[in-house]
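Researcher: Let's do a round of design. I'm pasting the structure tokens now; please hold your answer until I've finished.
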């Protein structure tokens, strides 16, 4: 195939994908659900590639994982006004809520184009030891050296401090799948599900989190929450605590 034919084909595929995305955004679920992020009951739209039904709140844009996060932090009173918190790769759906719930809210991202408190690499932040009561790190670990990132999160937390971690996990796999030889975007999309992912975690993600020194708890999407709030069945938040002692 010549380069021009290939470019034309790619352009057609992109146009088709945009039309499909718009169509799916209008495809409402059959039953109304409640969004704990914006406290609204409505029909959620399909979202994702391939599209997931009942995924996106039409009012605030929250996805399943954002709703799971809000359920956990609300039910456990995870945040308090005397806390200092660092939010890596801050999700716009959650930022305002977290900011309002803690005393000091800081954000971090590697991308210099983003407006965050710290432009830093999670693998080596350069921030002081034991600075934070809470850290949020959703859908970052699958992009980076997780051992380095988890060690850094442990170091940044005060003793007794807690982090919420989430990432795609293949629960049917005992072992994480990674291959450092696969570095090109197409290969990463094929092997790891997205052009900038470097692994699919298996169930051993728990061992990898504990290996950094953390005590670990989990919060999974189960019934009746799945139906009430439009969650991904079995999706899990990992709550990692730096031991106080
Ligand atoms: Zn919402």
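Researcher: That's everything. Go ahead.
Model: Designed sequence:
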């Amino acid at each position: 195939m010549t380069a021009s034919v290939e470019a034309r084909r790619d352009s057609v595929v992109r146009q088709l994908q945009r039309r499909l995305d718009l169509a799916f955004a209008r495809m409402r679920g059959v039953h109304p659900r409640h969004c704990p992020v914006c406290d609204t009951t409505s029909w959620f739209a399909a979202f994702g590639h391939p599209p997931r039904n009942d995924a996106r709140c039409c009012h605030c844009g929250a996805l399943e994982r954002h709703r799971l996060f809000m359920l956990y932090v609300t039910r456990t009173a995870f945040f308090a006004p005397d806390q200092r918190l660092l939010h890596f790769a801050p999700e716009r759906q959650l930022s305002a809520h977290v900011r309002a719930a803690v005393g000091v809210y800081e954000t971090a991202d590697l991308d210099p184009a983003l407006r965050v408190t710290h432009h830093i690499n999670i693998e080596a932040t350069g921030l002081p030891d034991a600075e934070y009561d809470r850290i949020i790190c959703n859908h970052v670990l699958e992009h980076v050296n997780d051992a380095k990132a988890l060690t850094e999160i442990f170091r940044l937390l005060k003793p007794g401090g807690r982090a919420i971690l989430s990432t795609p996990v293949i629960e049917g796999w005992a072992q994480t799948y990674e291959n450092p030889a696969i570095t090109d975007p197409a290969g990463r999309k094929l092997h790891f599900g997205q052009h900038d992912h470097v692994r699919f975690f298996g169930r051993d993600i728990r061992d990898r989190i504990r290996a950094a020194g953390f005590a670990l708890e989990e919060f999974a999407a189960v019934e009746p929450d799945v139906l009430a709030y439009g969650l991904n069945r079995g999706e899990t938040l990992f709550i990692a605590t730096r031991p106080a002692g």
